[in-house]
Design goal:
The complex is a heterodimer of chains A (about 400) and B (about 375).
Chain A (H helix, E strand, L loop, with lengths): L19 H6 L1 H33 L30 H34 L4 H15 L3 H13 L9 E2 L5 E3 L2 E4 L1 E4 L3 H29 L5 H19 L4 E4 L2 E2 L4 E2 L2 E3 L1 H27 L3 H9 L4 H31 L11 H13 L2 H30 L5
Antiparallel strand pairs in A: 1-2, 2-3, 3-8, 4-5, 6-7
Helix pairs in contact in A: 3-4, 3-8, 3-11, 4-8, 5-8, 6-7, 8-10, 9-10, 10-12, 11-12
Chain B lengths: L1 H6 L5 H7 L3 H18 L1 H10 L1 H8 L2 E6 L7 E2 L5 E2 L1 H14 L5 E6 L4 H6 L5 E7 L2 H6 L2 E3 L4 E3 L1 E6 L14 E5 L3 H12 L5 E5 L2 H10 L4 E5 H8 L8 E3 L7 E8 L3 H20 L6 H4 L5 H6 L6 H5 L5 H9 L2 H8 L29
Helix pairs in contact in B: 6-12, 6-16, 12-16
The chains are: A mainly alpha (about 400), B alpha/beta (about 375).
């Protein structure tokens, strides 16, 4: 082995006598040296940018540093998930904006996924009308810019609603008007936690039964009605607890005050417009991803499943979808990332998301563009990386495990 | 490894839906760009502050002036695309002082949120955009106010049909306001000081605020009173709306320059004073040529016939003549854009000259 390889391609580890010039020809040493050099250059550039910025800001007498986060914000925000007043700090305003972004992105992802799967399956439907309608939906919605769709939702749909005094009365004490959707707010009384505990117990039992039934089926081939049992446990146990605990639930109904509906729970039209815009737009892309994923499953798989005597619903659930998911998840991740980032279009319709509140109002009031933009970019980066990480983990679980 | 796992899904399709997009993120991009410019522009801005804004403007041959995106009376494009208004006039006056030609202005429309970054990053030389002079803006944003173009205060507008007589009656009302303004903060202050609850409805552009108010999204619309008068004329039935009597704040609106160039600040400040002094001495765009033969020493000093006052500014001695020719005196510009000669029909009020009982007062040219 020793000495057989040409000296240019082997390192010292190959047993050649050590020599300084020899290092020059060692590919590993050269590679490492280049990487270290690149790292140094990058660090220098980063250092230069940081010191330049600091010097620039000092010279122009622009305040810098992150001390502003502790100061009083002095403005109000229309929709807040956490307690916030105009006397709260800028840091608090940041969290309000961040949570608003998170709220609309999370709900948007769920809604877009459900809608996208339904429409994607509809496009593959044997029913001519359903398939065509789904095609029209996809082609129209994905080819119209999102900003325009947001304006359609906000200006054409939600702005056209009547004033609060003439609001549309909906079932169960809810009303819908130009100021938003006013719902009764549930008030939980003592004993409500029994219901919550029953719900958790139901879910735990359902999971347990699924595991047990799976084991039994593998051992004996006998099936167990897992779905019905799960529904019964998850819905029935809390209901039973609710009745036993003496119905510990009341509602705070919205009442029309002089100007607005007071009390209850108000869903602002800006939030609805953004949520619907994002969900319907992204759903059109997800529908295509789902369709391509399902068509990507080899035809032979379905035929084989049919030959085994599986029902259509079983073929879809047990054979097609698990294989299609492998194709669906990676591009689906991209859509989730898009949706999260697109939520920054909120600023166009006045929804107080991170960009509007923090990179907008706070930036304007403090004038600290560098710090505010850095934090904002950091947040979107972190959100995107976390989504990607989660989806990659899910993808790894769903990937075919070769046996 | 974790990072690689996370990064793997990043590539292209995420850009597709981002390529076109419009204003929303363009703004963020704008702010990000401005932040980036601030970060890397040491050589450029060093050159800028050494050469001085005046030299930079002269070399460029045109004044970059930041104005409102559209506010009748202050700065708005007319049907021919010409910028009109008292703030737009001021841009022309400054350009005239430098170039003897009021046309050498590039107007850059900015919304409330963008304006300061545009000035800080050097995108505009002068911000003449109904901006309220406050201490924090003057001292910690790297810019200086040079004077007060219009003494204003924040007011409220409501529908007559609501039967509201005072701001204090607005408990529980939805109130529309523009973000990035002192109005947004005054609103929060006033209502919390008076212990009244309200619901803010906030938009980035004034036109969106007006549209929201018009659609009934909010009960009241609040901004500076001059702006309210201006915006009211754009509503379908202006007479259905009333202004409430209270003014809840002081809003001294004035031009702004970058901090650190005292010579440039002098020019902007004295162009404003020249317009005020011209009104005081009765010099207008119509009679400025006759006035050149006036024996009055104050007028002769203003018009550069006596003394060497232009030199201190780095301009020719007849700088004020060009200012008055291009924009007229303060009173002329006021009447043409805001007063009796305009659709707004605002009274001079606090903005009258000091000798008429107002607050507009210029130091003497001496």
């Amino acid at each position: 082995m020793e000495g057989k390889k040409p000296p240019g391609t082997v390192g010292n580890s190959a047993g050649l006598p050590f020599s300084w010039p020899g290092l020059l020809y060692d590919t590993r040493v050269r590679g490492a040296a280049l990487q270290v050099l690149l790292l140094i250059v990058l660090l220098l550039i980063g250092y230069e940018i940081a010191t330049n910025t600091a010097a620039n800001l000092r010279k122009q007498n622009i305040a810098s540093g992150f001390g502003f986060l502790g100061r009083t914000a002095g403005f109000d925000i229309s929709q807040t998930v956490i307690d916030y007043k105009s006397t709260s700090s800028y840091a608090r305003a940041f969290w309000v904006g961040f949570l608003n972004t998170l709220l609309v992105a999370a709900l948007g992802v769920v809604l877009a996924t459900v809608l996208g799967f339904l429409i994607g399956l509809a496009r593959l439907s044997a029913n001519w009308l359903v398939a065509r309608l789904a095609t029209v939906y996809v082609e129209v919605v994905r080819n119209v810019p999102l900003l325009l769709q947001l304006f359609v939702w906000y200006v054409a749909v939600l702005r056209a609603l009547p004033r609060p005094q003439q609001g549309l009365a909906l079932a169960g004490g809810a009303t819908f008007d130009v100021r938003g959707l006013h719902l009764p707010r549930p008030l939980f009384e003592g004993g409500a936690w029994w219901v919550a505990a029953a719900l958790l117990l139901g879910i735990a039992l359902a999971v347990g039964i699924k595991i047990w039934a799976g084991g039994r089926q593998r051992a004996t081939g006998e099936q167990f009605p897992v779905a019905w049992m799960s529904i019964g446990l998850v819905a029935g146990l809390p209901l039973l607890a609710f009745l036993l605990a003496g119905r510990p639930l009341a509602f705070d109904y919205p009442r029309l005050g002089r100007f607005n509906f007071e009390g209850g729970l108000t869903i602002e039209p800006e939030f609805m417009a953004l949520l619907f815009g994002l969900a319907f737009y992204t759903a059109s892309f997800i529908a295509e991803i789902v369709r391509s994923g399902i068509t990507g499953v080899a035809r032979g798989q379905k035929e084989a499943a049919a030959a085994l005597g599986l029902r259509r619903s079983q073929i879809l659930r047990l054979v097609v979808i698990p294989q299609a998911l492998r194709l669906i998840i990676p591009p689906l991740t991209n859509q989730y990332l898009n949706l999260t980032k697109n939520s920054s279009l909120a600023v166009a319709i006045g929804y107080p998301d991170l960009v509007a509140v923090f990179a907008g109002t706070v930036l304007n009031q403090t004038g600290q563009a560098v710090e505010v933009i850095l934090i904002t970019m950091g947040v979107y980066l972190a959100l995107s990386l976390m989504t990607a990480l989660l989806m990659n983990w899910f993808n790894a679980r769903m990937a075919i495990i070769e046996r | 490894m974790v990072l690689r796992l996370a990064l793997r899904q990043f590539p292209s399709p995420s850009w597709r839906s981002h390529a076109w997009h419009g204003r929303g993120e363009g703004r963020l991009l704008g702010s990000a760009l401005a932040a980036f410019l601030l970060a890397v522009s040491v050589p450029a801005s060093a050159a800028l502050s050494q050469a001085g804004t005046l030299e930079t403007v002269k070399a460029r041959g045109v004044l970059n002036c930041g104005v409102n995106t559209g506010l009748a009376g202050f700065s708005a494009p007319d049907d021919k695309g010409e910028w009109t208004g008292i703030d737009a006039d001021f841009c022309r006056a400054v350009a005239a002082a430098i170039f003897k030609d009021g046309g050498r202005v590039k107007f850059l429309p900015l919304n409330a949120k963008e304006r300061f970054t545009a000035l800080q990053s050097g995108e505009v030389d002068l911000l003449s955009r109904n901006t309220t002079w406050t201490m924090s803006r003057d001292t910690s944003l790297g810019m200086n106010f040079t004077g007060v173009m219009y003494y204003d205060g924040q007011a409220f507008m409501v529908r007559k049909s609501l039967g509201v007589a005072s701001v204090k009656d607005l408990a529980g009302a939805s109130i529309c306001v523009q973000t990035g303004t002192t109005n947004e903060q005054n609103l929060a202050d006033y209502f919390s000081a008076n212990g009244i609850g309200y619901r803010p409805v906030v938009f980035e552009r004034l036109i969106e605020v007006l549209a929201a108010y018009n659609s009934g999204r909010c009960d009241a619309f609040t901004t500076d009173s001059s702006q309210l008068v201006s915006e009211r004329t754009r509503l379908p039935n202006p007479d259905d709306h009333v202004m409430l009597p209270e003014l809840i704040s002081k809003e001294p609106l004035g031009p702004v320059v970058r901090q650190g160039d005292a010579g440039w600040a002098n020019i902007v400040r004295w162009v404003h004073f020249a317009m005020l002094n011209a009104e005081e001495y009765g010099v207008s765009s119509k009679n400025v040529d006759q006035m050149l033969s006036s024996p009055n020493p104050e007028i002769r000093r203003l018009l550069g016939l006596e003394g060497d006052f232009g030199k201190g500014l780095g301009l020719d001695n007849d700088w004020a003549v060009a200012v008055i020719r291009a924009a007229g005196n303060y009173g002329e510009s006021f009447e043409r854009n805001l007063g009796s000669g305009s659709r707004l029909g605002l009274a001079r009020g606090r903005n009258a000259l000091w000798k008429d009982g107002g607050l507009q007062y210029a130091p003497p040219i001496r």
